[in-house]
C-alpha cells in the first residue's frame, strides 16, 4: 500500500514561490494518479492539480493556472507542485493523494475538471502554506 508524505510548505511573501514534494513509499507510483488538494480555514477541500501515470492527462485548476505546475519524477517516486506568483488566497493546508487507476473507464485525473476527492484513497498528512501580503 502506498504511503505519501508532503513537504516544502512554509511562509512566503506574496509573489514568492514554493515547491511542494509528495514522496511515495511502500509502492511505486506507477498505476496511481496523484492529486494535489488544498483546504483553507473554513472552506471545503478542493482539488487543484493532478497527474496520471497511465496516460498524459494533467489538470491544473483555473484558480492556479499559469502559476502552479505539476510534475513527476518516477526515479524518485515523487510528484511536485511548483507554486509561483503566490497570493494570500493560496494560504491553505496542501495535501497530495493517490488514486489507483484500476478502471480504464474512469478518469482518475481528467484534463477537463478537478480531481474527484472520493476517487483518492491514500492521503498524506498535509503541509501548511502561508502567503503573507
Based on the model shown, name its key terms.
globular, seven-stranded mixed β-sheet, 11 strands, 133 residues, four-stranded antiparallel β-sheet, single chain
SSE diagram, text form:
Blueprint: E1 3-7, E2 10-13, E3 18-25, E4 32-39, E5 46-51, E6 58-60, E7 68-73, E8 78-83, E9 92-100, E10 122-123, E11 127-132
Parallel strand pairs: 2-11
Antiparallel strand pairs: 1-3, 3-8, 4-5, 4-9, 5-6, 7-8, 9-10, 9-11
Number of helices: 0
The general outline is globular
The amount of beta strand, in percent, is over 45%
Task: Give the topology string: H per helix, E per strand.
Answer: EEEEEEEEEEE
Compute the average pLDDT: 96
Amino acid at each position: 500500500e502506498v504511503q505519501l508524505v508532503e513537504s516544502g510548505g512554509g511562509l512566503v511573501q506574496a509573489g514568492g514561490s514554493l515547491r511542494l514534494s509528495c514522496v511515495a513509499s511502500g509502492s511505486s507510483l506507477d498505476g496511481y494518479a496523484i492529486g494535489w488538494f488544498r483546504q483553507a480555514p473554513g472552506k471545503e477541500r478542493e482539488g487543484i492539480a493532478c497527474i496520471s501515470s497511465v496516460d498524459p492527462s494533467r489538470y491544473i485548476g483555473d484558480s492556479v493556472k499559469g502559476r502552479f505546475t505539476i510534475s513527476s519524477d518516477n526515479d524518485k517516486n515523487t510528484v511536485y507542485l511548483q507554486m509561483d506568483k503566490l497570493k494570500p488566497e493560496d494560504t491553505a493546508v496542501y495535501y497530495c493523494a493517490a488514486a489507483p487507476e484500476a478502471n480504464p473507464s474512469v478518469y482518475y485525473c481528467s484534463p477537463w475538471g478537478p480531481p474527484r476527492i472520493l476517487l483518492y484513497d491514500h492521503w498524506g498528512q498535509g503541509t501548511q502554506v502561508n502567503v503573507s501580503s
